[in-house]
Write a structure and sequence with these properties.
The complex is a heterodimer of chains A (335) and B (316). Helices cover 32% and strands 25% of the residues of chain A. Chain A has 335 residues and is of the alpha/beta class. Chain A has an eight-stranded mixed sheet with strand order 6-7-8-3-9-10-12-11, with helices on both faces. In chain A, a hairpin with a 2-residue loop joins strand 9 and strand 10. The two termini of chain A are 33 Å apart. With 316 residues, chain B is of the alpha/beta class. Chain B has one domain: Rossmann fold. The chains are: A alpha/beta (335), B alpha/beta (316). Chain B: Keywords: ATP-binding, Nucleotide-binding, Transport. Chain B: One of its GO terms (molecular function) is ATP hydrolysis activity.
């Protein structure tokens, strides 16, 4: 499959009190063309940091200390500011969680969206305006021509997010990074936005990297999922396989702790403890002290990324693939 | 029949806007009973008035009209010591554990405050003993007595907020989106804790949330709100199994879930109407797929249907 983005062994560190704290510690992510890839995990696991690395927006004291990000043959980690400016907003664009804070409150939304296209394509203002109205129609903004002259505060949260998506999609990017795009929205509006994103992805062939903490959102629209924990990818698989053949104890813990509608539960499953501090990470597996199935090896050694099938990666000692048989064995079965 | 702890009668709350003749209709004529030792959930989208109603219930804001009757007495008619005595029994847990704890007070001081205000007969040592007991109840280690809120994670802070709310053994706790600022793994810990505490302290919860899966887990009864009005009230199981009001059904349908992924579903069109210019007739009619003539003109009353209350012309 054609990948438009390949991240290999990416490491991002922050200098804290003279020491390097790794916010991302060797992650590998592939984003195939025209697919929606979900990145899930709890706060502080490095989801947004991954997005920021791709966009080249890591701010000091943070820096990329190793690994590579290949975007359609361009190495992003070594790219200069000017080259980056040509890619950002054109080939890779991004939408954020809170559309109110990412739009300029004193500029009409139409003009803000126009900015993106005028910057990247040499077209006249009239043409640009036409394109903006077209994209507004496409993302489902009613009365697009009237809305062109609205200010962000005059729009509802759902409409603002549609404006953001319009802005991100107007240059027909190859990759759209969506950082919790529906978290601030109500469920009925969330459903509308998710459907819109899926449709745009199918129609334009844009790949979407969907950062979220909501497993429901992942199940709804993602083709492929990466589960992150404390700066590492702990499991990745096609969505169905991840939910049906969950391998990593963290993923299964996360899934079990979500209350399910239509199921009467006396108590919810809980993952004990808290997410470790990245300044003080355990020596072995980072999940070891919260895991129900910890063995001695988990405390002393770092698990490697093991592909238990060709598309299912898990970083856990409970699983091992025997190369010559090309099959996976679970060392210990758990539920 | 179980005892009613708090009865809300015809609560109306409107907020002024910058325009003289326009008002935000936050809560429009809502009546509710909250029974002893039950969890009643208020659900709905942003701006539907759930938090306003919760705050009216315990007298944090006073409504324009209506009564909140706690054990037979309208709390809005009370003042001074009488009101203080009532308020002991009505507590609240807020959404944002970062904003609801005073950053300059230690955990011990935060949890002790309600005790110092209301239980004047307790000596300092007794207060401390009680605080430590409460910390144990909510799962905060006793060694942290002198720590400040910023030294805790979000989940731990919410536990501190819970300890403060249960300090006086209240009859009713309003939980205003208590887990929506927390990560899933922490959310489940806090939800379990709330359940345990209810069992132990026999308090009632008015649980405000927009997350229906959380509500399904914790609530005995659910009240679905839309634009300041009640759409449907009934037992949690009934409502989740067979929602009657079209809004309830579409709300349940809209939740992205692992179980229903990929299923074709009806998606609610349009935005939530503004609570300033509320639609005529049924407030939901602008988004309702079953809207008929009567819905546009006549506001439906809340009436009994299949063992619960529904406000819809269509539901038979």
């Amino acid at each position: 499959m054609d990948n438009i983005l390949t991240i290999r062994d990416l490491k991002v560190a922050f200098q804290v009190r003279g020491r390097d704290a790794y916010a991302l510690d060797g992650i590998n992510i592939d984003i195939p063309k025209g697919k929606i890839v979900g990145i899930v995990g709890e706060s502080g696991c490095g989801k947004s940091m991954t997005a920021m690395s791709i966009m080249g927006l890591i701010k000091s004291p943070g820096r990329i200390v190793g690994g590579s990000i290949d975007f359609c043959g361009n190495e992003l980690t070594k790219m200069g500011i000017r080259e980056y400016a040509n890619i950002r907003g054109k080939d890779i664009s991004m939408i954020f969680q809170e559309p109110m804070t990412s739009l300029n409150p004193v500029v009409k939304v139409g003009k803000q969206v126009m900015e993106a296209i005028i910057l990247h394509e040499h077209i006249s203002k009239a043409e640009a305006k036409q394109r903006v109205i077209e994209i507004f129609n496409e993302v489902g903004i009613p009365e697009a021509e009237k809305r062109f002259n609205s200010y962000p505060h005059e729009l509802s949260g759902g409409l603002r997010q549609r404006v953001m998506i319009g802005m991100a999609m107007i240059c027909k990017p190859k990759l759209l990074i969506a950082d919790e795009p529906t978290t601030a929205l109500d469920v009925t509006i969330e459903a509308q936005i998710l459907r819109l994103m899926k449709r745009l992805c199918e129609e334009s062939g844009t790949s979407i990297m969907m950062i979220t903490h909501n497993m429901g959102v992942v199940a709804e629209i993602c083709d492929y999922v990466y589960v992150m924990y404390a700066g590492r990818v702990v499991e990745s698989a096609p969505t169905k396989i991840l939910f049906n053949e969950t391998a990593h104890p963290y993923t299964s813990g996360l899934l079990k702790s979500i209350p399910t509608i239509g199921k009467k539960q006396k108590r919810l499953y809980t993952i004990k403890g808290n997410v470790p501090n990245i300044l003080n990470l355990p020596k072995g597996c980072r999940f070891a002290d919260r895991c129900d199935l910890t063995q001695n090896i988990c405390l002393s050694d770092r698990p490697k990324d093991d592909y238990i099938t060709d598309s299912h990666m898990v970083s856990c000692f409970l699983h091992k693939r025997i190369e010559d048989e090309r099959s996976c064995i679970k060392i210990k079965k758990y539920s | 029949m179980r005892e009613v702890v708090l009865r809300l009668k015809n609560i109306v709350k409107e907020f002024p806007t910058s325009k003289k003749n326009k008002k935000v209709h936050a809560v429009s004529d809502i009546s509710l009973d909250i029974y002893e030792n039950e969890t009643l959930a208020l659900v709905g989208e942003s701006g539907c008035g759930k938090s306003t109603l919760g705050k009216c219930a315990i007298g944090l804001i006073s409504p324009d009209k209506g009564e909140s009757i706690f054990l037979g007495e309208n709390i809005y008619n009370k003042s001074g010591n009488e009101l203080k005595e009532i308020k002991k029994n009505l507590q609240i847990i807020f959404q944002d554990p970062y904003a609801s704890l005073n950053p300059r007070m230690t955990v011990g001081e935060i949890i002790a405050e309600p005790l110092i205000t209301h239980e004047k007969r307790l000596s300092k040592a007794q207060v401390k003993e009680k605080v430590l007991e409460l910390m144990e109840d909510v799962g905060i280690r006793k060694e942290y007595y002198n720590r400040y809120p910023h030294q805790f994670s979000g989940g731990q802070r919410q536990r501190i907020g819970i300890a403060r709310a249960i300090a006086l053994n209240p009859k009713l706790i309003v939980c205003d989106e208590p887990v929506s600022a927390l990560d899933v793994s922490i959310q489940s810990q806090v939800l379990n804790l709330l359940k345990d505490i209810q069992e132990k302290k026999r308090a009632s919860y008015l649980f405000i949330s927009h997350d229906l899966s959380v509500v399904n887990f914790i609530a005995d009864r659910v009240c679905v709100m839309f634009l300041g009005k009640v759409c449907e009230i009934g037992d949690t199981d009934d409502i989740f199994e067979k929602p009657l009001h079209p809004y309830t059904r579409l709300l349940l349908d809209a939740i992205p879930s692992i179980e229903n992924a990929g299923k074709q579903k009806e998606i609610l069109k349009g935005d939530i109407p503004s609570p300033i210019d509320v639609p005529t007739g049924c407030r939901f009619h602008t988004r309702c797929p079953y809207c008929s003539e009567i819905c546009r003109t006549k506001e439906p009353d809340l009436r009994q249907a299949n063992g619960r209350y529904v406000a819809c012309h269509i539901v038979k």
